[in-house]
Amino acid sequence: MKRLIGLFLIAVAGGAVALGAYKLMESKQPYYSYTAQQPLPLRPVNYIPGTPFNEPDFETAAAISIHAVVHIKTEFQRKSNVYDDFFNFFNYGQGMPNQAIEAMGSGVIIDPEGYIVTNNHVVQDADNITVTLNDKRVYKATIVGADASTDLALIKIEEKGLPFLSYGNSDEVKIGEWVLAVGNPFNLTSTVTAGIVSAKARDINILGSQGTVESFIQTDAAVNPGNSGGALVNLKGQLIGINAAIASGTGNYVGYSFAIPANIVKKVVDDFMKFGKIQRGYVGIRYKEIDDQFAKDNNLPSIKGVYVQEVVEGGAAEKAGMKKGDIILQMQGLPVNSKSELQEIISQHNPGDKISLTIYRDGKQSDLSLTLLNENESLAYTKDNQIIIHGATFQHITDNEKQRFSINDGYKIVHLDNGLLRNSGIREGFIVVAIDKQPVHSTQDLKEAFTSKNGGVLIEGLYPNGMRAYYGIGL
Known about the structure:
This protein is α+β, with helices and mostly antiparallel strands. It has eleven helices and 28 strands. The strands form four sheets. Strands 1, 2, 3, 4, 5, 6, 7 and 8 form an eight-stranded antiparallel sheet that branches. Strands 21, 22, 23, 24, 25, 26, 27 and 28 form an eight-stranded antiparallel sheet that branches. A hairpin with a 2-residue loop joins strand 22 (about 385-390) and strand 23 (about 390-395).
């Protein structure tokens, strides 16, 4: 019996020693202790059993966006098939001979005064455009501007106080972020689908022609024919893209869709509203994406950036000091590793805008500041001895006009598109004599007056009937 009691006491003492050693180790080590060879747990450290994970809230974004997304019906006699391979994306059927063909798409209200952005391929060639709001009100729409190079168009209905979407910053969109696609697939109004951003800056080579801008947001939110021109929104209900295309062999959604980033949309819309046409800035280089083999062949330190193959003489890049062989690493503080990333950044700026660059040259990084020019290497759009600024086409007056109106010089508006000047009340035929009390003698005077002033300008001139007029224009 004594021997049995002794063994029991020894066991108890051993257990106490082991328990104390365990407690000592527990106080010095976390509950989860990992080494490189140990697998991580399949749940977060702060996970409490029995509590749900935080789920994304789609309701707020859906409630905001459905009222700002519209149904668009177009009628046309002949529809361009330029986009059919990839943009077979809106419902339409062939009519009988001499009968109009109808197509259905979507649009997004971006201004309470009735401005709606959609895809160019939705309204291209349209004879009639009908817009139906989410509350079933119906309006006729007119085209303010359309741009095939970005596949964007701006249309307008005559209504005020409309619900609209505010722009989000598409540069800040993250891969894996939840998004909603809102539109009218298969002619079903106000349809909302959810997915994540699966890639950015996708160039899928669907617009084809030279000078096009392709830098799509790729998502797996379900998008089908009729969604074209609809909204891609984040969970705040902000517009981050305009749905434009699907990757499909059938014409219906099979896994991926593509949206034009909101930062590009905003710039194009602003151009249409202020200038009447796209103001596209140019860097003045020919460049190449860098892959592993190209980096090895040219002894480059990495595959980051884009390689400058040629610098256009007299262009913006040459004036900024860029040279052949430079590698552009960043623009406006954003990494540039592909054609689509470079295009996306440039497409958000106008001629005359300054952009910052980080380049690699001769083993060192350096910063440059570059002022974008237009295709004619100037700050304003010029064509056939005319100059186009803010949607107005100016032409130097003739000697006969100088004598007739008893003026020394001036520039006449021979054509006026939608834009800042037309919105101010100026009409075609108006002759600009002075801006801010300074006489206008040359296109350079016009350029400087409109590009170097902050706040606004005072325009003085006269009409062909001799009536003098003054216009104050905010810039």
